[in-house]
Amino acid sequence: MILSHYIDNQSVEPPENWGAFRFALNYKDDNVSAQITSTDELIFVLDENNIIRNWFDGLLGAFEPPEYRVEVANDGDSITIFTALIDLTNRPIFLDNNRIRVKLKAKDGTDVIGTKAQALSFRYLDSLGYFKESDYIQIPYVLAFIPNYVEAVTVSIAIYAVGKEIAEQTERISAIFADSSGESAGGFLGAIGSALLGLLRIAISIAYFIALTIALKTLIIDLINSLISPIRYYKGIKLRKLLEVSAIELGYNFESTELAFWDDFVLLPEKENRPDKLTNEKGYPDRNSSLYNCADFLQFYKRLINGKFQIDGNRIRCERKDYYEKTTNYKLPDVLTEEYTVNTDEAKSNLNLRFAKDQLDTTTIYNFTENGTTMQRVTELKNSVNKKNSLLKDIDRIDLPVSLPTRKDELTEIEIGLKKLAKKADGLIKIFDKITGKNTANLSQKIKNRIGMVNLSGDATGIPKLIYFVNGAIPSNYRSVLNAQVMYDKYYFLNTYCADVKNYNQFQIFSENIPIKYEDIEKLVVNKWFKTGNSEGYFEKIEVQPDSNIADTEFRIRKILTTNLKDKIVW
Prior knowledge:
The chain folds into four domains: 3-109; 119-143 and 232-320 and 348-408 and 473-494, no CATH class; 149-227 and 411-450, no CATH class; 497-569, no CATH class. It has helices at residues 46-57, 111-116, 122-127, 149-183, 188-227, 239-250, 259-262, 294-304, 323-327, 413-436, 443-448, 478-481, 484-490, 518-526, and strands spanning 3-7, 10-12, 23-26, 35-37, 42-45, 67-74, 77-87, 93-96, 99-106, 136-143, 232-238, 253-255, 265-268, 307-312, 315-320, 341-342, 350-355, 374-381, 395-400, 454-456, 465-468, 507-515, 529-532, 535-544, 550-558, 565-569.
């Protein structure tokens, strides 16, 4: 077996202490892809020492370090055992002029989703040109607020006065037409003079009529605004866009088969004020948002779909956690596994899934349970002799850091009355439109079009909202498309210890030395799951000494441990 070592793609001699070196595949945060780590430090000498020092002093320096790669020849092909970065930010030790001691850092591990992505805010990505105005979705909203009745009464009096004046002016215009006809019956010159005078009087009267109509329209709009809130628009953004730009700036592409479901959803970030009071409003999560940076948003999506991350080449993939069981192509070798433990300590007797309440938007608080924003499942014993002896305990809390919107489903009594008034005003405005050649008689339609908009209790929100948004509005079936029970049925049914569910979470746990091939390491870096007999399992840790064909491992194998459990939905 011949191992080849490379620094920045240059063939080099192995480190001075290579024979004692060990590295581990750690599946941090229960992710699918491994984070290659090592507590050992490597000592590079002579030419290799010079390569690293020159890099440190060169253009890229410590913060974009060289790659260190180890390959093994296998039947004429080269297999990469691992690729890591020489970490020059983790206290390298310059031993003397010819020797340097360094630690390694994973190159393509899931750690990039944590530490590196935390440094990337969406405002920073905006400064790099990742967002265009066309990326933002205009979300219309109205307020559920107490009308300003004093203002409404004042405006109503003015409307009455202007309306009365319009009626009287209409009669005057009719009278002018009648008088003009009578006066024109005189002599020729007298008829011309009378006609011109009549036309002038008619023109002045019509101009006054138009002015009154415009005033009436303005007053009705004022009345509407004093009794019901005007329609305003916040900017939101699609989930896909935020996920894709996060991955691109990290050097990857983002993939998830689950995005097909979420493509009709818009994220409405927290808003501090009404749109016209905000300076340079953006549709992405910004300052003071719980989803402010790329790491927060990637982790939010992972939680949303009960998912796990996988780094595969140039892709960051996030799928529902059972997805990777079906895609593994590694089979656990036959090993003697007499000693094992079990994970009965991980059984939870209760699961509570809920969307967040927004304390600045009381519409998310009213009827919290009835609106489908929370659900509960309990796991019970099928057979029990003495309930006092039951060891079922604990709760699995799944808090989703977004709130669901409240839809404007119907017009209020005030809005219905205003709509009737607006219709009568539209009839009058149509007469004005015929004169001007315009089409402005749309007051009643503006009230009707409020149906399907987001309903807020105020112009500020404190929690991001996840909005089902189709053709510029929230569809009437939005509560059935997304609610806590849908989230459980689609994603979180997997979080059960009950063996009645296919992907149940009962496991035997082993610590074992197993034979391992270098090509196996390549597979297991990408996907921790394996097949074994008629079951499946996954590794929690793999520790390898490169010169050895044996790995120290910790792994689990799915195995029915009890059938005496059942799940029940409480609400």
